[in-house]
Target: GNAT family N-acetyltransferase
Amino acid sequence: MFDVTNDRDGGRTPRWNPLARAARCGEALHAWRTRRHGHAPPAHDTGGAPPSPEPAAVESALWRMRTTVRDEPGALAALCTALAERRVDILSLQTHPLGAHTVDEFLLRVPAGTDLVAAVTAGGGTDTWAERADAHDLVDGPTRMLGLAARTATDAAELPLVLRQLLGRCTIRSQPAAAAGAGAAAVPPEGVLEDTVIRLRDPEGGVLTVERPYLPFTPTEFARARALVELDARLGPRMPRGRDVLTLSEGGHVSVRRADTADLDAARAMHERCSAETLRRRYHGPVGDASRYLNHLLSPRFGRTLAAQTASGEIVALGHLLWDGDETEVALIVEDAWQRRGIGAELLSRLVGMAVEADCAHVYAVTQASNTGMVAAMRGLGLPLDYQVEEGTLVITARLTPTPAARTPETGGRVARH
Model:
């Protein structure tokens, strides 16, 4: 990945001209089609000469690129021509009007060794940013937005994730209404766009803040993010209701399901049945404060929670996957009478699977060095681990792979899905 910043042209800011815009896009499309299909002469004008051999295939890579050009006829065509001269293949193009300028966003297939920034600069692009892409980026824009909207509609916990997928590498923070105070009222219903920061009213109260310091947001990105938040607000609280039955290695079974703030009373009751030592290992502070964190931990806005529940309806374990800015934390608590029966390891394995699906690169757990149960559960994942110890506090970071290690009968139980 690399960043190149050039100063934009100064001068008076003209109004956006739709006709000039149409002409500009037409020129770009013509240049693109010319490059992709060519204009070979008819066969009878070639003297029957055999066609020229195709150029040898060269190694290439996918790149996502964003650059700024003047909003005037021929500007986009000049940029496309500069890319074509270096055999850069334009796979998709989106434009974001910005008054006197336009931000153009490309998905490109670039031959190895190509100086992409030099090509863009030669074509008139400024404020250029680029990063490597993969095959997932080949989905066209409308299809991608529909997919993100469907994920948002299915599960309230998806909103921070779909915003991150929509806007790229960014930090998303949700500030509850009680903490936001007057700040929530300062954000108008339509939200605020401030260069590299987006602020929107959280449907649950408070403020959603999205920051991307390395690349300013465009009005188009702001409008898309606001539409997803509005969809979340209209649909209200929701969560997948499926559950699995986990048969424990020592006999008996519990069900594993998603949990949210509707389970607050049952989670508090579990806390009351836990020993002071169990609560201290989990929350690293005064035992009496443990239940104060539950409303935050169970909120789908801050992550996902799994609960292990008995047939009588008692919650005996909770596992949390928490969105901590651009980091992801995992945390577990298992009621004393249900410990060492594979429940914590099973919850942790499922939480890590959720993190992989959410494209998280790492997860970390904060515990005490003496908490051998949590250490064993993290080691049981079969993932590369990093350990950091400071004054008795242990932070274990797991580097995720596309397919986490499967649970074995010795470390977990058998699952029946319902």
